[in-house]
Amino acid sequence: MANTNPAVDWAVTQGANAIECDIHFDGSGKPSLIEHGSGCDCDCATRNDHICVALQNQCSGPKASANPATYMQNIARHAGIALYFVDSKVYAKKRHDVVRTIEPESGPWGEFTDMVYCDANTWAIGFRQRVEKPCDNCDDTALNALELLCGKKDGTPVKSITSHKGFWGDWGDNIRCPGKNNFLKGVSFKIEEPQETGDDTAANDCQFACSQSSNIFASKDDPWGNWKQMKYCPPSTAICGFSLKLENIQHEGDDIAVNGAKFDCCTL
Question: How many CA atoms lie within 13 A of 127 on its CB side?
Fold first, then answer.
C-alpha cells in the first residue's frame, strides 16, 4: 500500500484486509478524480484478497470508470473490507505568472507530486525540511519532505506550502532570506549516488540562493552525498511553487523518500 501508516500496517498484520486510495480535490470541496490509468494509486493491502482486488480494479487501469464519491461510499459500506485508508490531495491552480520551471539534479527514483504554489503576489522567502537522522544499522532515508515559506515583497510571511509531508524524520526550523524584496531564486540538492547493493538515500540536503543575500542552508540535514550545481530562476523572477520527486514506501525494499524537486519561477 502506498502512503500507508503504522496503524494500517498493524491492522494488516492482525489479519484485516484494507484498501488505500488517493482522492484528488480541485478546491471546490468535492472529489474531482480518482486518477484512472497507469498512474492510479489505489491498492489492496494483500494481493490474494479477491474482495478487495475486485474493488481495486474499478479504479485501476485504462478501463476504470468509478465515480470518486460513489466509489468511496461503496468501500465504506462494503462488509468485506475491514479497513480503508484515504490519502486526499488538493490540486493547486497554476499561477498565471509562471515564467520557467527549473529542475536541479536529483536522484533516479520516485515520481513527482502535484505542484503547489504560493498565493498570487507572494513568493518563496524561506524553507524548512524534514530529515530522518542516521539510524546506524537500519534503512536510512535522509531527506523526506520540503516546505517553502511564502511571503510578500515587504518580507511579511503569509503561509507555508508543501506537496507531501514525507514519511520519516523530524522537521527543522524555518530558515529565510532576510529583509525586504529577498526571495528564493536558486536551488541545489546534496545527492548521494546510487549505492548498488548498499543503502540508498538520494537527496540528503537542500540549499537555496536568495535574490538579495547569500545562500541559506537548512537547520537539519544528513551527511551523505555531494552538492550539485545550483539552478537559478531567470532575472526578475523568484520561486513561487514546487513539486517533490518522491519514492513511496517500499515495504520489503530499500526506502529512499525524496530524490529531488522541480520549482516554478514567477514574475516579481
Answer: 31
pLDDT digits (tens, 9 = 90+) for 16-46: 555 555 544 444 444 444 443 333 445 555 5
Does residue 158 sit in the same domain as residue 86? Answer: no
Q: Where are the alpha helices (DSSP H) in 203-262?
A: none
**Res 7 pLDDT > 60:** no
Any domain includes 1: no
CB of 144 closer than 8 Å to CB of 232: no
At residue 70, the pLDDT reads 60
Contacts of 5 (CB under 8 A, 6+ apart): 85
Domain that holds residue 235: 98-267
DSSP letter at 56 equals H
Answer yes or no: do 59 and 169 share one domain: no
| Burial (0-12, 13-18, 19+ Cβ within 10 Å), 191 | buried
Check if the beta carbon of residue 261 is closer than 8 Å to that of residue 242. Answer: yes
Indicate the pTM of the whole model.
Answer: 0.64
pLDDT tops 50 at residue 216: yes
> Which whole number is the average pLDDT over 127-155?
88
Nearest to 82 by CA among 44, 47, 54: 44
